[in-house]
Amino acid sequence: MPEVIIVGGGMVGLSLSLMLAKAKINVKLLEAIKYPTEHDQKLLEYHSRFDARNSALSRRSISIYQQLGLWTVLQQYATPILEVQITEQGSFGHATLRAQEEQVESFGQVIENAWLGRVLLKEVRQSEYIELIDGVEVTALTQNESSVCVTAVRAEQAMPFEAPLVIAADGRDSKCRQLLGVSASHHDYEQVALVTTVQTSKPHQQVGFERFSPLGPLALLPLPGDYRRSVVWPVKKGEQEQWLGEVNDDHFLAALQHAYGDRAGRFEKTAPRFCYPLSQVLADKQAIGRVVLMGNAAHTLHPVAGQGFNLCLRDADVLVRYLTTHLKNHEDIGTPSLLQAYEKARRKDQQRVIKFCDSVVKGFSNNHPVLKLARNVGLLAFDRIPGVKPLVANYAMGLKV
Ligand SMILES: Cc1cc2nc3c(=O)[nH]c(=O)nc-3n(C[C@H](O)[C@H](O)[C@H](O)COP(=O)(O)OP(=O)(O)OC[C@H]3O[C@@H](n4cnc5c(N)ncnc54)[C@H](O)[C@@H]3O)c2cc1C
Q1: pLDDT (tens digit per residue) in 314-352
Q2: Which spans of this chain does the record mark as coiled coil (predicted)?
Q3: Closest ligand 1 atom to Cα of 55
Q4: Which residues touch 127 (CB under 8 Å, ≥6 apart)?
């Protein structure tokens, strides 16, 4: 069987390796960070890659993990979203999406990244098809008609690798993208996402909130444990310091209380806040000869609608289908025309999601009275016009693709 090299063992690289392994395709996974070993499993909870964030997984993403046989383990630290309430602070508009009304079990599940990463890494380590080479940084990449050569460096020692196909899942600032000379459009939202876990006095009852406040769109999602909720709150760049550190816990809880009123009851406790600068980065090309850009290396989005990772998983799923079909016909899996066909096939879904996330951020970040009114009317209409809600619900669940 041919071998595929994946550069980057973040959540996308790890998931993709397992999808390829399931199709019995050999993978060499090159990751810059030295991951903790089996014996250090506890350390993974605090690992910089599988951090304090939580991911809202769409139903399609869940079905991908089900097919990999991982969902039973993953769901131990996941919570279903049965209802989503969308409101704007100081305004009359609101919208509610209920899973029951849309005749689905849930809109998806919120999972702790620390747990997801831990499960994926353990599975990767156990797979006979995957060789994880961590603690190595890819510094060079060249390709010819039949293969791609990658150089990875560990402690100043260069290691050469070669394969008919390389998948670059090396994140927003992708080194591979630069080495390939692929340009990318960058848009800085001038925002930083504050991410943390809070405890409220009212149980969450599997309800998620998206609240548009003057400080930014604030997401409050249910977590395992009836009173724990995940917070993602984008604030203006440069203004994050006032919310960080234990000394500002009360200040932060008071701000959440002010933004939410008593919908969630009292905001009683908060974990430390972590910061993520927010930008949109879109590669101009994703299939370059025998190399494909994947995950954040291909498209990094604003997390406002929790779509980024879900989109990456759909890309990975489609790519694996293309590769397996090609392999059945005993054809070369790095064929540039095959990779271009994959890129073309993914364009529509990617563009819809990119546009959706960007317009939600921009549409709700403006306090002009006319726009505010339009938003209110929009939210009300969204709540009342038949057919609109199921459409958006299906879309958010990743089913309509
Ligand atoms: C605050 C926040 C909340 C989010 N919430 C959601 C959500 O609810 N739902 C959702 O769908 N999405 C969400 N996302 C988006 C999601 O986090 C990303 O889509 C996902 O993390 C992308 O993963 P990745 O593996 O592509 O990139 P990364 O996590 O950046 O991983 C890249 C990997 O490549 C490695 N690497 C880099 N350079 C090299 C090199 N030269 N050699 C070798 N290895 C290298 C890095 O060490 C890293 O491990 C959120 C994002 C943010 C910021």
Answers
A1: 999 999 999 999 888 888 999 999 999 999 999 999 998
A2: none
A3: 8
A4: 17, 18, 21
